[in-house]
Amino acid sequence: MKKKQWQGWGAGEQAEQAEQHYLVQPRALAGGGDVRHVSEFLRASGWRDKSKSGGPLHMESPDRTVRVAYDPYVLPGGWTIHGQADGANGEWSAHLGRQTPVEIVAGLTDALTRPRSAHAPNVWAPLQEQNWHTRFEGAHYMATSPNGTAWMQYHQGADGSAMWWTGAQDKQGNGWTANFTPNTPMHLVQAFSTELASPDPVMRPRGRVPHSAQIRTWSVSVKPSQLSAWQQARITAARAATWARNSARSTRPRTSPRPHTPTSSARTRR
Questions:
Q1: 191 lies in a domain?
Q2: pLDDT tens per residue, range 170-180
Q3: Is residue 110 part of a domain?
Q4: Does residue 98 belong to any structural domain of this protein?
C-alpha cells in the first residue's frame, strides 16, 4: 500500500457531482471503513510506510518501536499493533478484527503519535460518560453500550496479568472483536474506549453500509471536494502537530551545565 496507491482518494479529476453517503449510528456497527483514515494520519505524523506493493499495510513509528499492520488477505485478518519493550513497560500488542471501524482504530493509532498525558488514564470514564452499563460479572469487570451491541471487558488472571477484550455484534451475528495484551499502555486503551463510546455517527459510502437491524442511517449528499477537504484537514492537523513537536525538541534549551573554565590568574584590585 504505497503512496501511489492512494491516488483517487478524494476529488482528483472527478467531476464535481454530489455522491450519496450515509451517516451510520452506532459507529461500532458501521463496518471497517477506509484504511487510509488510519494510515494517512500516521504517514503525516512521520511514520514510515514499510508496505510491499499490493500487499498488506505495514507502518513503523519514527523511533522504530511500534508497528501498525492491517492484513485483509488472511483469516481472520484485521489490525495488529505491536510495541517493543521500553524498560518501564514490556512488549505489548493489540489485535483488532477486520470490521473494527477505522474511526475507532484511529483512537488508538492517533494516540501513538501524541505525547502521553500526565493524567492517570481511566479506560472506563469515557464509557460511563456515555451511559454505558458497568458491572462485575464473576472475575470480569464489564461495560456494555446502552443498546447492548458493544462491550468492553477487563479480566485479571491468576498471575495478576490484565487482559482487555472488546467488540460489537448485532443480532445477525455481524461485528468484530479486539483484545489488548497485559502490557498495553493504559492511555492507548483509554483512547480506544473514547472512540468506541463516542455517540457521533460515522460516514460510509453507498454500498458500504452493513445490513443490520441495529443501526440507524441518514442519507447525505457529499461532493468529492468536500470529502477531500475533510480528509486533508485531518492530515494537515497531523503534520502541524508533528512540526510543532519537532520544533520544540530542536529549540529546547540545554539542561546540562556548561563546563567550568578556570581563569589563569585572579584579578586583583589596586
A1: yes
A2: 999 999 999 99
A3: yes
A4: yes
Global pTM?
Answer: 0.84
For the chain, the farthest-separated pair of C-alpha atoms sits apart, in whole angstroms, at: 98
229 grid coordinates: 477537504
Taking only the tens place, the pLDDT of each residue in 116-157 is 888 899 999 999 999 999 999 888 899 999 999 999 999 887
Cell of 172: 445477525
Q: Supply the range of the domain harboring residue 154.
A: 18-244
Tally the residues of the chain: 270
Which pLDDT score is estimated for 4? 39
Asked whether residue 270 is assigned to any structural domain, the reply reads no
